[in-house]
Structure formats: C-alpha cells, structure tokens
Amino acid sequence: MILLMIVAAAGPLAGTATAACGARGRAAGWTGAAGALVSLGSAVWLLAADLHRTPVVAWGGYLYLDSLSCFFLLTVAAVTLLASVGSVAYLSAEEDAERLTSFQVRLYYVFFGLFAALMLAALETGNLGLLFVLIEASTLASAALVGLEARASSLEAAWKYVIISSLGVTIALAGTLFLYYSATGLHLAAESRLAWPYLFSHAHALAPQSLRLAFLLAVVGYGTKVGLAPMHTWLPDAHAEAPSPASAMLSAALLNTGMYAIIRFLAITHARLGDGFPRAVLLTFGFLSIVIGVLFMIRRGTAGGPGGRPPGVNVKRLFAYSSVEHMGIIAVALGFGGLLGLYGALLQTLNHAIAKAVLFLTSGDVSLRYHTREAAGVRGLLAAVPVTGGALLLGSFAVLGSPPFGVFLSELTIVRAGFAGSSPVFPLLLLALLAVAFVAFARTTTAMVTGRPSVPPPSGRPDESEFAAHLTAPDPLSSPSSEPDALAPPYRGRVAGLAAIVPLGVGLVALLVLGLWIPAGLDTLIRHCVAVMS
Amino acid sequence: MQSLSATSAAGVLLDLSGVLILLLAFACLGSKLFNRYVAYYGAQSVVLSFAAGVAAYAFHSIELWVLAAATLVIKGIGIPLAARRLLVQRLELKRDAALSTGLSTSLIAGGALTAFAYLVTRPQLLPHGLVAAAVVPLSTAVILLGGLAMVVRRHTVAQLIGWLIVENGVFLGAITLVATFPFIVEAGIFLDLVAGAAIMLVFVSGLTRRLASASASELRELQG
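Output (structure tokens, whole complex):
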C-alpha cells in the first residue's frame, strides 16, 4: 500500500528525469504522460483497495491517506494525465514553429513533472507542516512554468505569482504554527502535534482562541493559492501567461490542492468550534470571490472596441476569472456544510477540474492556430476547425453548469444545500450570480465559435510585435512563417494531432457521464470523504 | 509543555532578540537606500540565529543548533551577500525612489501595526509568564511590518526584502512558541525559503534586464 502511494506521487517524475537526462522534448513528454497514467492507475487502485475503514498511516503520520486524500489524488492525477498528453501536442507544435527552444521545452518537462509530483505528494501527507512545505515547493516549481516563455509579460506574471503566493503561504505557515500551539495542552509527542489525524481526533481539547486564529490565517494563506478574492490577483496573469497545458494544471490541480489544505483545517475547526465561525469565514470569502470573478468576466467579456477600451478579451484570462468564481462556489458550498454541501463541494471540485482542463487545452489549440489569445481575433471556429470549436462550445457550457454536464448537477446540489440551511438569501444570491456569469462567459465563447471564419493575421501579430524586441527565444516573426494557410493543423504528424484532441474528448465524455450518472464507487467515495470531514 | 518562563536567562535573551529584530524591521522600513535594506536584513538574520542558538541551548536541542547555524550562514551571510553582489551592485541601485508613501507615514503605519499586533495576540492567546507571551506579539509585528514594506515599496528588490522579513518574523514566532517543531518540517521550510529567494533573485535580474527599472509600478502591462 505504501509503495503504491509512493508510486502514485512519483509517477510524473518520470518526465522530469527523462528531460533532465537530456532526452528530446517529445520523448520526455511521452514519458511524462506515461508516468501520469501510472499515477492515475495507482490512485484508482488505492481507491479500489478498501481505504474507507482504515486510513493508511506510516512514517509517524508523514505519510497518510484516507478517503478525502484519495478523492483529491484521483482528481489531480486525472488532470495531470490530461495536461501531460496535451503538453506533448502543444509543446512540440511550439518547438516546431521555433517559438520555444529545445532547452525551454526540456525545462518545461522538468518542472512540469516536479510540479505534479509535489502536488500529489502534498495530498498524501498527514503532517500539516509538511503539507505547507510541499505546497510552497509546488509554487516555486510552477513559477518556472509561468515564466517559461521569457517575455517581459510572462516574467512579470511569474514574479507576481511567486511573491504573492509565497507571502500567502507564509501566512498559512503562521496559521499552522497557531494550530500547533493550540494543541499544547494535549501532551502528544511533538511529531503527532502536527499530524492531522491526531489533531482531528483530539479536536475537542484544542485551545479555541488560537484555533480560531489558526483557521483564519489558514484560509487567508492557502486561500491565496486557491485564488479566493481578494487574494486572487496573481491568478489571471499567471494563467494567461503560462503555456496552455500548464495553465490547465494551475487551474485544475493547484487550486484544488490549496482547497484540500483549507478543508483539512476546516475539519478540525468544525469539530472544535462548531458551525458558526467557519461558515461565516467561508461564506464571506466565497461570495466575494464569486462576485469578483463575475464582475471581471463581464468586463473582460466586453469586446475590444476602438478608442480607450480595453484591448479585448484574452480568452485565458476569462477562463481564469471563471476559476476564481468556481473556487468561490466551492468555498460557499463548504460554508453551507452538511451532507449536501460537502458532497456538492467535492463533486464540484472534480467537475470543475475536468472542465477547466479541457477549456485550457482548447485555448492552447486555438492560440496555436490563430497566433492570438484575443477572442476578438477568433470567429467561426466551429466552421473552420470543427473539433476544437465543438470542444470549446461544449466545454464552456459544461463549465457554466448547463445540463446535462456534471457541473450542473454539482451546482444544483450546492444550491439545494443552501436552501436546506437557515436563510434562503444565500442560495438565491448564488443563483443570480451564476446566471450573470453564464451570460458574461458565454457571449465571448459563443462569438468565437459561431459566425464567419476569420482569417488569422498571417504573421504580423499586433499584440506580439511589441514584445519582439524583448524576445531572446528565436523570434517567430523573423522565422519564415509564410504558411499560406495558417489554419492548417499546427501539429506535425498524426500522433501529435491525436494528442491534442484525445484529452478534449476524454474530458468531455467524463463530464457528460458525471452529469448523467454518478458511478457507485464515486458516490461511496464522496460519502466517505464527507464522513472524514465531519 | 516545554516553554521558557519570561524571567529565566534564556527568556530574557529571547525577549531582547525579539525587540532587536523588531527595531531592525523598523529601521528597514524607515530607510531609502538599497544598501541599507540588505544590511538591516542581514543584521536581523544574525540576531535571529542568536535567538535560535539561545533556544537550542535552553531546550538542549541539536536540531535547533543546526538551524541556528544554517540561519547564520545562509540568511545572515549568504542571501545578503548574493543580494548585494547580484542586485544592488550589478544594477547600480542606490536610492529607492519608488515609494508609494512618505517614510514618516509608513513609520507611523508601522507603529499602528505593532500596536495592533499586541492587541490581537497578547491578551487572549497566551498565558502570562511565558516568554512566548512577550515574543509572539513581537513576531506578529515583524510579520506585519514586512508586509507593510512590501506594500509601500514598489521596487521588486525592496519587495523581496520585505518578504524575507516576513519569513524572519514567522521564524522568530516558531522558535519561541513551538521550539519542538519536527525537524523535517523545519528543514523543509528552510529549504523552501532558500529556493524561493534564489528563484526571486533570478526573476528580479531577468526582469531588470528587460525593463529599464524593475519597479513594480511599471509592471502595468497586466491589469486586473
């Protein structure tokens, strides 16, 4: 069992090792994807083994696995697999077009594998101090991915990301410190005082004052990683500037890892302080995030006109704000609590992760074909590139929670949980915000998909030309990119083309299945997770 | 519970170090020269390693001795030296012109934050008589002052120093509040810090090569 856990966490390192040994980008990519598959396989295996009654504890609590960690392990491993396969297609296309050097591609695979492995490891530890260490380390690994393209704007985004996230996670460390302090009355061995299972089972004896402070600091600190407003400011920049598969990892894996840490603190706090305090904190941050996310989606949804208007809609920024909104929804669901609320929160986590991974991978495909990330430059995608257009359309409806996709089901569960609570104001507010989000988001993406196909600007990209002076990588503008038909598939060879499409298809099918029918195993798993949390 | 009383010799020394660390954070906040930022941070780290040594002596903890030595070598000498060589001298930074408030305003705000730190942590959380009761408000104040420095300074190098001061504050709280933090965790935190500082050094020098100055206020390309 322990070996299986190690394999699950170390799987993605295969890509890191291959790339570090100097293999070609494509080989490292496929090795990484194989490693991610191994990870997902071990996660499923761990699930199939009956964890629900006896969590695995080893190495003095440093290694710990229960239903909750298993659920998140499954989610993150699935996203890693989708993103790894997507990476092969995206990165080799970028390399072929000489937008990235082969060194940059290798660097990407080194840090991609490290990033994924650190997140998976964070989900497998029961020690809250080690959890901090691993999450902070994953921040540092992913910063390299954000700054990979080495343009002024991507370095800026990476800087913002590192400085804000590190500060945030340091605050979470202060929270961990106070939690540790609140356990001083327990006379546990020093090792166990940071071990989650011990703390949870002795929650009734924790000092309430410092526990309260600890929870607040943890929500603010890890909330920075989750992207809860007002700590979300790094998120749109980092998501927009990272290569698309890395954005998928940030949005669908990293944010969930942060939420996992908050859930661990929530469970302890809930056991000691009851409903009121955690609910107030989570509802406040949750609704603030939804409102901020929706507001920016409206602003970004305004098509760029002439004059002093914002330059247009960067699709990936739009998706990033949608992530802020969804993390807010999950926080609200955790705040509602109860079986329905927690069930909805977990289901929403899984659904959002898959949907967002699909969307970011699609955006990568679009930006490869059209050489722009601005939505205004893309029209008639459905006619020009039916597969990508279809995936974008279906993916955005899925993420917005229209039936029959999984997000609809989980959002419905969350709203029901709200109505089961004391005041109907909150669920009604949630519904209203969801409706606004739907309109704001869909009018951008549907405009991209429908209409007359636009011809991508042959090479002179207005939004890129100002960066040309800064580029150290071989400049795409100076390279002979005189393809007459720029909409031709950017991938060389059928395998790469398939690698671009397969994750989209698999993700959408999974979302559809989750919307129509929740497999019995998943249902039991989520119920056990809820039992772990309360 | 292993905790030091405030009247023991070690307790007095820890208390004194805490006060010095706070004063150095104030000194950093009240300065405008890049050289001074780095020097004050280095001095603060040296005092911190002294505090860790005192705690190690009091608790007879080998791990804490290791940590004190690592603090002295890496935070007290390594990071300040690297920051001075790689950033201040190479980029020829002298006066920091990118302040969003005047020095006196930020010092007054710092004083208010220190009072706030005492207000929040002292009465409710900690039993009187322990040295932690005196030092934890100090460390909270250092954390807040570091955050304040990051807010009022727009230059990336200054923000980096602010973050390092925040880390020092957390570390000060950690050694007095919970001297028995598991070693793996302490070591991991330390490694993260060092790696973080290294990555930030790389980014700052990368950014400054691309933009004429690395003032964060000029990083305006990405908005909202």
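Chain B has a mean pLDDT of 80.
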